[in-house]
Amino acid sequence: MNISIIVYSQSGHTLSVAAQLQETLSADGHAVTLTQLETVAPLQMGDTTAELNTIPEVGAYDALVFACPVRGGTPAPPMRVFLEQVASLEGKKVALLVTGFFQAKWGREQTLAQMRALCDAKGASVCGVGSVGWSSLRRKQQIARAMADLRQVF
Ligand SMILES: Cc1cc2nc3c(=O)[nH]c(=O)nc-3n(C[C@H](O)[C@H](O)[C@H](O)COP(=O)(O)O)c2cc1C
Question: Does the pLDDT of residue 89 top 90, yes or no?
Answer without folding.
Answer: yes
